[in-house]
Amino acid sequence: MQQIAIGIDLGGTQVRAALVDEQGRILARAAESTDALAGPARVLDQICGLTDGLLAASNPASVVGVGVSAPGPLDTVAGIASHIPTLSGFVDFPLKAELQKRFPFPVDLENDAIAAAIGEWQFGAGKGFDNLVYVTVSTGIGGGVVSDGRVVRGRKGMAAHVGHMSVVPNGELCPCGNRGCFEAYGSGTAFARRAQMRAMESSGTTIGSDGGAIDSRSVFAAARDGDRLANQLIDEEAEILGRGFTSLIHIFSPDIIVMGGGLSHEFDRLQPGIQAYITQWAMPAFKDVRVMLAALDQNSGLVGAAALAFLSGKVPAIDQL
What we know:
The chain contains nine helices and 13 strands. By secondary structure, it is α/β, with parallel strands linked by helices. The strands form three sheets. The chain has a five-stranded mixed β-sheet with strand order 3-2-1-4-8. A hairpin with a 3-residue loop joins strand 9 (132-137) and strand 10. Helix 3 (112-123) packs across helix 9 and helix 5 packs antiparallel against helix 7 (228-252). It is globular, with a radius of gyration of 20 Å. It starts with a strand and ends in a 9-residue tail after the last helix.
């Protein structure tokens, strides 16, 4: 009998649901825009509506459970959304318990970046490795760590907020309220902000010359057309990411770093600069650690959430991994 798990990826922009088999294959999926300002009851209704539709259309033989990926901070030990800034009302909200009331299957809750790390470890670029660091580089920077074949969760299940390690003393203000965080310099948002400022100061760039928005996509497009400033900005971004990744390599000693998130769509352009920084500045024993592209792309968290349900039914249990 084929077993499937339900994966839920709850974000501030979209709610996504999928039926996933034990090989990590997505059998069916559905998504809709998150009603982010309507409060928890409405968002939970959206989750249940998507999953009910998938189950009714697919009629699977056996559902092992529901895995939910959500942005943090989350206290996954207590099952509480401590504060999800992109979702109104999700402050000290008992997310796991409220979902469990609505589902006849066991529910597991995980931070979105850790879920993505699990997805890549079980079914993606990290399959076969016992040690990896997953870093998502998008609006912000998040992460997840697998060490000695175990998911690193830490106190309250909140480990690996890698975007909030300090990289510049008293540096740029980060959305978390601290200054000098990796996220404040290396995220897609920070990259776009630098591009906007530098384009205003430069008369010889095509960035923004068409009156369109200056964002990461427009910078990479300009670089492909040979724009000097655009290529300089990308080289600087690769160096910033390389610096952060090198620190993570020294801390966790992974076999690989897996890069996901929006900026990973330009991995081929960024990877040589990232790898060059690691080769130059990592300690000799760590220079050979490779940076790899997430194999599951935007589905890393969705598949990883489903993997929670499969892993929780095995020995050792997921909370021991």
